[in-house]
């Protein structure tokens, strides 16, 4: 079933059927599981989500950077249907199958660097991050892991420890895993002495803090998102990542790039760290990998990945055959349809319009991101004081008009845009018109 690529509002948002379902949710689903926009989905395709009231919403969220190839992408649907009819599960650790091997081959080929690589597959991003840490510890014989301010790495115990933001991710859920240390991120917009000093000073602080507070000889891994996701699409100051990676190599520390949100053509490259020529030792992927099916991976240097004894990595569902079939179809779509090029096209359409907003409205403190991973940071005009209330109000205004937008940021003051890479220019402009109008209505 294909979905017509246009916005259509038939009721207020959310409509009566969605509201009724939301009441059922309240009575049946744990309230800790929140929803950004309580419209209940009936179907979706490309860049449009259709709700149970017949409203058609423009999707600037992709289910948090997951449906990069579009929702219900034709190749993915076909591959999943064929695989699910052939077999649904055997457990790769019991009786293996080709799909898992083929996904590993693709990941080894597409991730940065020409060195010998191996991959292991898991179910969720958090699980991939946990396994990257296991591998780094096993390989180095060290325990400490260094993560950054504004980082987001997941919601399991170890990944909560790696994640920076307390509310809602960590608050009340401690104690957290040990041997996790946090250092400042090279966040140009908020660097105290100005963006021009950010890379140098952040790198110096990083080196000094790891040396003095952790010890290089105790440090197994440094983990970083090449563009931070939940933390507010913070793009590290140019040169910072490369210097951190180089410093890690000099000290035998595993440099882990968490590309769970930024990977798979999202930023205009296959992986965001390619933009600066950074080659990670280990890279974690998930979200965009499989067109919406749950799959995640760790890919990295063969000697590190293979340091773990047989049986030390795995999981019942890791690399499920249906998810693997979806991943192969999603990757084929990215290659055949040049979705890296599509992300660059989206940037060239969206970025000037976001910059125009910044010129018009003092509340836009910063416009940043790359490819189809773009954001505006909202502040009280003339200051850099975060304005989370305006951010929430603008997002709600977009939702009412049938545009799915997401917020982010440590201070809750970032509007982030993650359209599917197959979205048409007309929908993109229409979504931006809605955003314009939302700003005009809150000026
Ligand atoms: C979403 C995300 C995770 C966690 O992935 P889950 O599949 O939700 O466990 C980890 N790291 C980054 C950068 C993410 O964006």
In short:
The protein has 443 residues and is of the alpha/beta class.
Describe this structure in words.
- The protein has helices spanning 16-28, 62-65, 74-86, 98-110, 125-140, 157-162, 198-214, 240-250, 302-305, 321-336, 339-360, 388-400, 425-441, and strands spanning 41-45, 48-51, 56-59, 117-122, 144-148, 180-183, 219-224, 254-258, 282-285, 296-301, 364-370, 373-378, 403-404, 406-408, 414-417.
- It is globular, with a radius of gyration of 21 Å.
- It has 2 domains: 16-72 and 338-442, Aspartate Aminotransferase, domain 1, CATH 3.90.1150; 75-336, Aspartate Aminotransferase, domain 2, CATH 3.40.640.
- The strands form 3 sheets. It has a 7-stranded mixed beta sheet with strand order 4-10-9-8-7-5-6, with helices on both faces. A 4-stranded mixed beta sheet has the order 1-2-3-13. It has a 4-stranded antiparallel beta sheet with strand order 11-12-15-14, covered by helices on one side.
- β2 and β3 (56-59) form a beta hairpin.
- It contains 13 helices and 15 strands.
- It has 443 residues and is of the alpha/beta class.
- The longest helix has 22 residues, at 339-360.
- Pyridoxal-5'-phosphate (PLP) binds at residues 124-126, 129, 152-154, 225, 229, 258, 260-261, 286-287.
- Residues 124-126, 129, 152-154, 225, 229, 258, 260-261, 286-287 line the site of pyridoxal-5'-phosphate.
């Amino acid at each position: 079933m294909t979905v017509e690529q246009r916005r259509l509002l038939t009721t207020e948002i959310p409509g009566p059927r969605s509201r009724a379902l939301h009441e059922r949710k309240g009575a049946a689903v744990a309230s800790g599981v929140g929803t950004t926009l309580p419209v209940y989905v009936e179907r979706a395709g490309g860049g449009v989500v259709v709700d149970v009231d017949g409203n058609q919403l423009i999707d600037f969220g992709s289910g948090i950077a997951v449906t990069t190839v579009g929702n219900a992408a034709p190749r993915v649907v076909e591959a999943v249907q064929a695989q699910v009819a052939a077999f649904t599960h055997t457990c790769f650790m019991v009786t293996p199958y080709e799909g898992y091997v083929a996904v590993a081959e693709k990941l080894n080929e597409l991730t940065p660097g020409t060195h010998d690589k191996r991959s292991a597959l898991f179910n969720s991003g958090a699980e991939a991050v946990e396994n990257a840490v296991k591998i780094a510890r096993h390989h180095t014989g060290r325990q400490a892991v260094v993560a950054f301010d504004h980082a987001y790495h997941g919601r399991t115990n170890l990944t909560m420890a790696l994640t920076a933001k307390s509310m809602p991710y960590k608050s009340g859920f401690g104690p957290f895993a040990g041997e996790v240390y946090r250092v400042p991120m090279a966040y140009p917009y908020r660097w105290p002495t100005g963006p021009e000093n950010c890379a140098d000073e952040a790198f110096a602080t990083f080196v000094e803090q790891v040396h003095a507070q952790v010890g290089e000889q105790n440090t197994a891994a440094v983990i970083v998102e090449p563009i931070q996701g939940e933390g507010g699409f913070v793009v590290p100051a140019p040169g910072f990542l490369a210097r951190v990676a180089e410093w890690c190599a000099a000290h035998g520390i595993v440099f882990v790039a968490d590309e769970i949100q930024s990977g798979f053509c999202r930023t205009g490259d296959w992986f965001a760290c390619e933009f600066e020529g950074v080659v990670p030792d280990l890279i974690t992927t998930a979200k965009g990998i499989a067109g919406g099916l749950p799959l995640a991976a760790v890919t990295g240097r063969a000697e590190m990945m293979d340091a773990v004894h047989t049986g030390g990595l795995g999981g019942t569902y890791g690399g499920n055959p249906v998810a693997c079939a979806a991943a192969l179809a999603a990757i084929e779509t990215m290659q055949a349809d040049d979705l890296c090029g599509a992300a660059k096209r989206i940037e060239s359409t969206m970025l000037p319009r976001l910059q125009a907003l910044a010129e018009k409205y003092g509340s836009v403190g910063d416009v940043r991101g790359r490819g189809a991973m773009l954001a505006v940071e909202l502040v009280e005009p003339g200051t850099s004081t975060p304005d989370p209330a305006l951010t929430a109000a603008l997002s709600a205004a977009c939702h009412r008009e049938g545009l799915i937008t997401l917020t982010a940021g440590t201070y809750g003051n970032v509007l982030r845009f993650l359209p599917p890479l197959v979205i048409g220019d007309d929908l993109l402009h229409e979504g931006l018109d809605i955003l314009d109008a939302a700003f005009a209505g809150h000026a």
